[in-house]
Amino acid sequence: MAGVWRKPWITPQDYLAAERVVEVLSDSTEAIDRREKRTNYQKIPSLREIVLVSQTERLVEVYRRDGAGWTIDMVRDGPVMLAASDLSLPLDAVYED
User: What's 85's DSSP letter?
Assistant: First the structure.
């Protein structure tokens, strides 16, 4: 596309400015995504939400920064609330074929 510049990589500064990270879990990386990556994401000062989406069951986990700690919302039915963007996403839309 002429006139459109796309960044070919993500810099560390981009990560430090992120408000939300979404990870789609897979069998081969789920343990790393849950432990190491989530723990490291929680150290990013600007980050307000971490969203983990399961591929093996209808489950979306939304971790939200709450003051000095984090809360978790386990969504198996109904809307997925993404507070950082004031957005409500139907769970059916997440798992739509």
Answer: G
Residue with tokens 């343990």: 31
Q: Is 50 exposed, middle or buried (0-12, 13-18, 19+ CB in 10 A)?
A: buried
50-80 pLDDT tens trace: 999 999 999 999 999 998 899 999 999 999 9
- 3-class secondary structure, 50: strand
Task: For residue 80, give the nearest of 55, 56, 65, 59 by alpha carbon.
Answer: 59
User: Measured between alpha carbons, how far is 17 from 91 in angstroms, rounded to an integer?
Assistant: 27
Cα separation values, 70 from 17, 42, 48, 73, Å: 18, 8, 9, 10
Backbone φ and ψ for 77, nearest 5 degrees, come out as -160, 150
Cα 54 to Cα 25: distance, rounded to the nearest angstrom: 5
Rounded distance, CA 82 to CA 89, Å? 8
pTM: 0.80
